[in-house]
């Protein structure tokens, strides 16, 4: 019990003192996750909106595929990205394996289907309200998509927060493609796994507490966005 309590005390000291190693890991984690989120948003939001308002052969199959890919196993994503970036892979010439960029790619692959599927749901709900107006005015598809994305910005912010929370808590994929290299690719989740296996609980606990605080912050922000009138979020509950 003393060791357990002592580890918590030391973890608190590391956080309070802004330990350089701790700060470095946290900042890299946030940098990688935000980079992946930006790339995923640039891909996922327009594609999700397009699936919501467009009608074309195979659309229903794509919707089903995107929904299914929301449950992609992270280690499978890591393996596929590893194969693409390894020296024998098609992108091996770029020498991206075991770099933060590889981790960004893995997280992007992991969360883009989530953003596409949830965005499609948000925009589809909005499109039911505006479809007749757009049709009567002859609004082109790209203009309608832009208008719906803007009108659903609060709901889409919760979608982005969901993607952020999913990415920053990821360990399997980033461990495979990043290698958990100290001062290079070590992020919070991989550092927690490593420090725990070494029996060094203080740093693992400090990182775990910060990760938990981030998760709580994301959920609190999501609740604040949806709370005012309960009508901003168009994401249906599962």
From TrEMBL:
Record keywords:
Membrane, Transmembrane, Transmembrane helix, Transport
- Domain ABC transmembrane type-1, by residue range, is 26-222
Q: Does the keyword Transport apply?
A: yes
Q: Where are the transmembrane segments?
A: 25-49, 61-85, 97-118, 156-181, 201-221
Q: Which CDD domains match?
A: TM_PBP2
Membrane topology recorded in Swiss-Prot or TrEMBL: Multi-pass membrane protein
Location of the protein in the cell:
Cell membrane
> PANTHER family recorded for this chain?
PERMEASE COMPONENT OF TUNGSTATE ABC TRANSPORTER (PTHR43632)
Q: What is this protein called?
A: ABC transporter permease
């Amino acid at each position: 019990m003393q060791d357990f309590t002592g580890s918590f005390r030391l973890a608190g000291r590391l956080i309070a003192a802004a330990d350089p190693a701790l700060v470095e890991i946290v900042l890299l984690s946030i940098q990688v996750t935000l980079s992946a989120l930006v790339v995923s948003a640039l891909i996922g939001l327009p594609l999700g909106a397009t699936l919501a308002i467009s009608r074309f052969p195979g659309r229903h199959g794509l919707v089903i595929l995107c929904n299914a890919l929301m449950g992609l196993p992270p280690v499978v994503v890591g393996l596929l990205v590893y194969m693409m970036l390894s020296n024998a892979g098609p992108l091996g010439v770029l020498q991206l394996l075991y770099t933060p960029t590889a981790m960004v790619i893995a997280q992007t692959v992991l969360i883009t289907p989530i953003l596409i599927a949830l965005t499609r749901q948000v925009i589809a709900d909005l499109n039911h309200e505006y479809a007749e107006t757009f049709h009567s005015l002859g609004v082109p598809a790209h203009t309608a998509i832009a208008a719906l994305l803007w009108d659903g910005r609060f709901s889409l912010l919760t979608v982005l927060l969901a993607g952020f929370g999913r990415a920053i808590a990821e360990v399997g994929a980033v461990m495979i493609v990043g290698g958990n290299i100290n001062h290079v690719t070590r992020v919070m989740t991989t550092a927690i796994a490593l420090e725990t296996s070494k029996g060094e609980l203080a740093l693992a606990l400090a990182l775990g507490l910060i990760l938990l605080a981030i998760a709580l912050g994301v959920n609190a922000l999501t609740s604040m966005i949806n709370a005012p009138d309960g009508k901003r979020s168009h994401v249906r509950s599962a």
